[in-house]
Amino acid sequence: MDDQQFASLWISSRLKKPFGLNRIRFELKQKGIDPEIISQETKRAQENYDESETILGLAQKRVAKYRNCNPKTAKRRLYDYLLRRGFQRGIIQKTITQIF
């Protein structure tokens, strides 16, 4: 298996988890994949991937765990969780604004 094929399979499997593209890029870089291949494959994956829709669904499921927290703490925890999953900060902030 060559690096490009590996990167493509890795990206598709990680998007199903779901993880954000930032985290996936980082993981591929850690595995020693060429940055050019990472860039090509993530661009290809973005054509069929709506990150904001994915974040919204994930956030709605996760916010149920924070029912007993005050809103400020819940927002911070949700933000941190989504950030660790590798999603973009701007999209996270918009999603949190929609939910709260």
Query: Largest sheet, if any?
Result: none
- The mean pLDDT is 94
CATH-level-2 architecture of the largest domain: Orthogonal Bundle
- SS-based structural class? mainly alpha
* Radius of gyration (Å): 15 Å
Task: Tell me the span between the first and last alpha carbons.
Answer: 45 Å
Strand fraction band? Answer: under 5%
Tell me roughly what share of residues is in helical segments.
over 70%
What is the tally of beta strands? 0
SSE succession: HHHHHH
Overall outline: elongated
Tell me the count of domains: 2
CATH domain class of the largest domain: Mainly Alpha
CATH names the topology of the largest domain as Arc Repressor Mutant, subunit A
Please report the number of helical segments. Answer: 6
What does it look like?
The chain has 100 residues and is mostly helical. The protein contains six helices and no strands. The protein folds into two domains: 3-46; 51-99, Orthogonal Bundle (Arc Repressor Mutant, subunit A), CATH 1.10.10. The longest helix is centred in the last third of the chain and has 14 residues, at 71-84.
Salient structural properties:
elongated; 2 domains; mainly alpha; 100 residues
Please provide a brief summary of the model.
With 100 residues, this protein is mainly α. It contains 6 helices and no strands.
